Amino acid sequence: MPETLTADQILEAAQDVLRRFGPSKATVVDVARALGVSHGSVYRHFPSKAALREAVTRRWLSRAHAAVALAAKADLPAPERLRTWLATLFDSKRHKVLDDPELFATFTALVRENSKVVADHIAELTAELAEILRAGVAAGDFKPFDDVDQTARAVFDATNRFHDPAYAGEWKQDGIDAAFDAVCSLVLAGLAR
Amino acid sequence: MPETLTADQILEAAQDVLRRFGPSKATVVDVARALGVSHGSVYRHFPSKAALREAVTRRWLSRAHAAVALAAKADLPAPERLRTWLATLFDSKRHKVLDDPELFATFTALVRENSKVVADHIAELTAELAEILRAGVAAGDFKPFDDVDQTARAVFDATNRFHDPAYAGEWKQDGIDAAFDAVCSLVLAGLAR
DNA sequence: GTGATGACAGATTTCAATATCTGTCATTTT
DNA sequence: AAAATGACAGATATTGAAATCTGTCATCAC
């Protein structure tokens, strides 16, 4: 039972409220109630409801991705590492949506309302991709690229169907793994020396 | 002023009503009113509002695509033909959304509510792609594929960002053409012998 | 003085009454 | 008889009044 209210406590409570009530019902008053404080206190730490939701979204997204980034750090040749990275990204999101569709929907709604957060997250992801591409070029596995960042973004775009939550509904369909492998192989063939 | 009401007249009127009122406000009663008949007469030709909307969607989609399919029939080597096909598809959709965003939104909403129509349309599109791929394999421009249809679908999936209306908001951003070229080149490199 | 409160104005949401729409079908029109 | 109608029941949408929420700020507590 801490003396003073911290931004982190508020974020934690806001996350709980969002989980329980969903993105359309969760209010700042609910968050304050959950913490046993007045809603005015929340506004001491966050300038607006939108800012609070954005902060929750950012935290949620970065924590969710930390696991993926780690899993795909394996010490492999670039092509395999790229394939693993893409497959891990896909698998992790697919598991999320299958395990708890409601929570995934809440999370997706939050992400959708913050295009800035999405842009930043995509920038992080493509930076990871660019890293792999550079390693592959250095090792002679990939052909040299005019613009590695552009190519990294192209790889990200080409695999959209397997990481954009907008397509989550298709991730349980039969043949989705074959479709993923097909795109993956096409992309890898396009990168190969 | 024809004697008897035809399904085609109803489709035409329904299309007008949808254009004018938008997908959420357009009613069967509106369509009947526009034709000067009772709404019961509409139900003689279409079993439900959903069926009527689906029929409109199908017609709208197939007419919109006829122009694209034609434009991309040019007598070129397969790789150029593929690039032209993809570029024409992208350009045509981008023009639609830029020229009349409201109509595009109406159209997109209709498409979204009919996943069956979408699936059929995608099947047609990938069939066109598969045709190009086969020609390319025969001419020795593309490497032979295990499964041409699967590869065609992979090409379609990889270029999602440039034909799925869900991304229409990004089509006016700077650098979108460069992003398109990057994905296109990656895909073509992946197909090349 | 720093942090928390709760009253307040304006914006947004909820709710229930009302109106409109969807789909059916017995009846009317041609 | 084939086509069209319009009354009807149940479902859905609209509306406006009441409730709740957001964001501010003068005041209170430590």
Map the helices and strands:
The structure is a homodimer of 193-residue chains.
Chain A: H1 7-21, H2 28-35, H3 39-45, H4 49-71, H5 78-99, H6 101-112, H7 115-138, H8 148-158, H9 176-191
Chain A binds a DNA duplex (30 and 30 nucleotides) through helix 3.
Structure description:
The structure is a homodimer of 193-residue chains. With 193 residues, the first copy, chain A, is an all-alpha fold. Chain A has 2 domains: 7-46, Homeodomain-like (Arc Repressor Mutant, subunit A, Orthogonal Bundle), CATH 1.10.10.60; 53-191, Tetracycline Repressor, domain 2 (Orthogonal Bundle). Chain A has helices spanning 7-21, 28-35, 39-45, 49-71, 78-99, 101-112, 115-138, 148-158, 176-191. In chain A, α5 (78-99) crosses α6 and α7 (115-138) crosses α8 (148-158). The longest helix of chain A has 24 residues, at 115-138. Chain A is elongated. Chain A binds chain B through residues 147, 150-151, 153-155, 157-161, 166, 178-179, 182-183, 185-191, and chain B through 147, 150-151, 153-155, 157-161, 166, 178-179, 182-183, 185-191. The first copy, chain A, binds a DNA duplex (30 and 30 nucleotides) through residues 4-5, 27-29, 37-41, 43-44, 47-49.
